[in-house]
Design brief:
heterodimer, A: 117 residues, mainly beta, four-stranded antiparallel beta sheet, 0% helix, globular, B: 114 residues, five-stranded antiparallel beta sheet, 11 strands
């Protein structure tokens, strides 16, 4: 599982409340990603990080922010949750398989199921 | 923008038959193409991948083929078994490959009937 954990694993919240999801990795990977998964849409990238304090937007970043203050933790925040943000959220890391080689192989965390009422 | 189209969205086969899932990508700069399998309630798991300098790769009952000219790649599963039932996702590396970004297809739900 590439040493990736996510917390919480399940959360129910109300519209308008802030929510923070945590992704934690133990193997010092530089690249981390947040996806959301919805039926018919596959996996869509929300934000990603390429190092401490280095983050960038993905294709569905509106309504989300991220922070990475240390290598092992990548936080996803829903500033004011909406029902359209009900989804399953996956964190992923890139595992460099050869020295100086590819960065693209991604391994996923167990996911967080978020329900916004 | 970058896009990956995956077909079919659902596929039902008899145990022992072959299954083929096809993906088309838009960015000619893409050079890495992984396939993931996701069982119900679980995380996506990498099952096979291919790079643009290779046309075909096999691993036991699964194989992936790549046609760079046509910008499409396919997953082939032979001698399907009920445990192959899952959702399969293809992906292609994004334009800025130094960020490791992947663009995913919409997924194919494969059902293998005993």
């Amino acid at each position: 599982d590439a040493g990736i954990t996510q917390s919480p694993r399940h959360k129910v919240t109300e519209t308008g409340t802030p929510v923070t999801l945590r992704c934690h990795q133990t193997e010092n990977h530089r690249y981390m990603y947040w996806y959301r998964q919805d039926p018919g849409h596959g996996l869509r990238l929300i934000h990603y990080s390429y190092g401490v304090k280095d983050t960038d937007k993905g294709e569905v970043s509106d309504g989300y922010s991220v922070s990475r203050s240390k290598t092992e933790d990548f936080l996803l925040t829903l500033e004011s949750a909406t029902s359209s943000q009900t989804s399953v959220y996956f964190c992923a890391i890139s595992l460099r398989r050869t020295s100086g080689g590819d960065r693209e192989t991604q391994y996923f965390g167990p996911g967080t199921r978020l329900l916004v009422l | 923008g970058e896009n990956v189209e995956q077909h079919p969205s659902t596929l039902s086969v008899q145990e022992g038959d072959s299954a083929v899932i096809k993906c088309t990508y838009s960015d000619s700069a893409s050079n890495y193409f992984p396939w993931y399998k996701q069982e119900l309630g679980k995380r996506p798991q990498l099952i096979i991948d291919i790079r643009s300098n290779v046309g075909e790769k096999k691993d036991q009952r699964i194989a992936v083929t790549l046609n760079k000219t046509a910008k499409h790649f396919s997953l082939h599963i032979t001698e399907t078994q009920p445990e192959d039932s899952a959702v399969y996702f293809c992906a292609a590396s994004g334009r800025s490959s130094n960020t490791g970004k992947l663009i995913f297809g919409q997924g194919t739900t494969l059902q293998v009937k005993p």
